[in-house]
Amino acid sequence: MSLNSTAIQIICAYPLSGEYGRMVRYLIYPLLTLSLLFSVAGWVAGGALNTAMTYIGITGIHLAAMAVNREAGVVDLDILTAYHICMVALILSPPLIMWTKSLRRPSGKGVFAIWVLLLWIGVILFTTAAKHLPKPVPCLDDKGAIVTSAGELRRCTLSCESFSLPLRRLHHAKVIIAPRYYDKLGTITLAGTVLVSFFVLFALVRASTATPYTPQHDQMYGARGQTSNFESRYVAKGASLIFSLPLKLSVAATITWIFLMEFTMLKHLPQSETNAAISQWGPLAAFGLVTLAGGVSRLTASPEIQTTSLSDSSRGNIGELESQSFEDPDTWAAAATEVGDISPQKRGFWGTILNVG
After folding, report:
1. What is the pLDDT of residues 84-134, one digit of tens each?
2. Taking the CB of residue 325, how many other CB atoms lie within 10 A of it?
3. Crossing angle for the helix pair 42-68 and 22-37, nearest 10 degrees?
């Protein structure tokens, strides 16, 4: 009987930082869900989206940094969780751009594209670095006998004291049991990168072709209605299934990926901090503060700001509105929505680009 078949498999690793603990991960999933399903309540969904995208964006930068700054013989477990979080966001990117109002605005689409590319680069860098991570070794005691029980992990003679990763210099690596399927990490990351590339490319294409959000979308199609000129032309011919299928696959793939990772590779990873640490519940506090700020801003906004001069113009004098020049695309779209049809000669630059009116 071989050592690999009976001995517990161990590696040298740095425990999870508080920012990647179980509590933080279980918070990010609901925040992304709120962003998608409750976009009607803009100040709530906006707070959830801002908190989630900020945290995931930082995670993508950290993932790229950990992939580049590695050391033979030891692994920073943060890299596994960071990779998982970035994968969740990228797989879910098509519904994010199609169902979220703020991301469908011209400025939002640019931010979304940069955010997706940032995460994609981190995932690709980790995929190339995965093959260089330390391989699991059998646990042997000082007499060369195999250790088969996790409770006797302290008997393992593997030493992790000489390692010093640039990003974890004040921490100490320790011997841990290799995560489940860790030995197949190279295959998992390669397959994951191929899978996520499909969703990323689809999301970027949709971001470049989607019509910017205007209030008219809610009135005609609902909060998550049609957003593409091409799609709207062929809905009557049954082509909507072609466009909705990637979104359905995205949601299904996201749920599947979360369950597979949470109940296998990430299930028993050691953490360096408890759930009471600020790094664990910090994102929850950030979401609360952002949501509170949005609610207060909404409640205290003056009627003059909420009811713009565009509404007055549209009710009284369409000719006066047509004579105005709007440099901002959102303002132009709002004006065109409230007024209705505006002559092509008066559309100007944004009218041509947005194809509104």
Report:
1. 999 999 999 998 888 877 787 777 888 899 999 999 999 999 999 988 888
2. 9
3. 140
